[in-house]
Amino acid sequence: MDTRCRACSCEAAQQATHHTEIESKDDSSVKVRVWVGTSRIAGKGLFAAQDIKKGTRIIQYIGQRISKEETADRLYQGNQYIFTFNDRYDIDGKTLKNKARYINHSCDPNCEILLTQRTIWIVAKRHIQAGEELSYDYGFTAKQYRCQCGAKNCCGYILGEAYWHS
């Protein structure tokens, strides 16, 4: 399998064990190329296949819209891809079409979440270079999972920054 990135010739893409390039369009029809590869944080990750400007809508977190009751059932069954959407619904991002599910948590993320009335966007928090792994703060509220992001300011847990000192 050829693991070289066609859009860029970044070294990270050449080292990927699984490399699929995906294009998404933000509201202004700008194509943003990303690919799935081996993460230095955990398992697989999503990587930029091009330079991305701060504020760019990179990719949507897609999946089935489910009730809070259904969320509880699916979490109990081990589904790790549920994203809180609003007071009534969550998004089950387990579908293979949802490449945003590969974005890992970081205590020093390069992306942030934008919730609109219809969807969840992953947005560049700062300029992101081609080959860089995408990450955002999962915002968890309890010290339940150990963090392996490797950031200098890592708090040791997958935890929202507001909860680091609690």
Q: Can you give a write-up of this model?
A:
- The chain has 166 residues and is mostly beta strands.
- The chain has one domain: Beta Complex (Beta-clip-like).
- It has two helices and eleven strands.
- It has helices at 11-14, 68-76, and strands at 20-25, 31-38, 44-48, 57-61, 64-67, 82-84, 89-92, 104-105, 111-115, 120-124, 135-136.
- Strands 1-2-3 form a three-stranded antiparallel sheet, with no helix packed on it. It has a three-stranded antiparallel sheet with strand order 4-10-9, with no helix packed on it.
- Strand 9 and strand 10 form a beta hairpin.
- The protein is globular and about 40 Å long.
Topology readout:
Blueprint: H1 11-14, E1 20-25, E2 31-38, E3 44-48, E4 57-61, E5 64-67, H2 68-76, E6 82-84, E7 89-92, E8 104-105, E9 111-115, E10 120-124, E11 135-136
Parallel strand pairs: 8-11
Antiparallel strand pairs: 1-2, 2-3, 4-10, 5-7, 6-7, 9-10
Q: Quickly count the helices.
A: 2
Q: Can you tell me the residue ranges where pLDDT is under 50 for at least 5 consecutive residues?
A: 1-29
Give the % helix. under 10%
Could you give the order of the helices and strands? HEEEEEHEEEEEE
Percentage of residues in DSSP E strands: 25-35%
Q: Which structural class should the secondary elements be placed in?
A: mainly beta
Quote the CATH topology.
Answer: Beta-clip-like
Rg over C-alpha atoms, rounded to the nearest angstrom: 16 Å
CATH architectural arrangement? Beta Complex
Q: Care to count the β-strands? A: 11
Number of domains: 1
Major β-sheet annotation? 3 strands, antiparallel
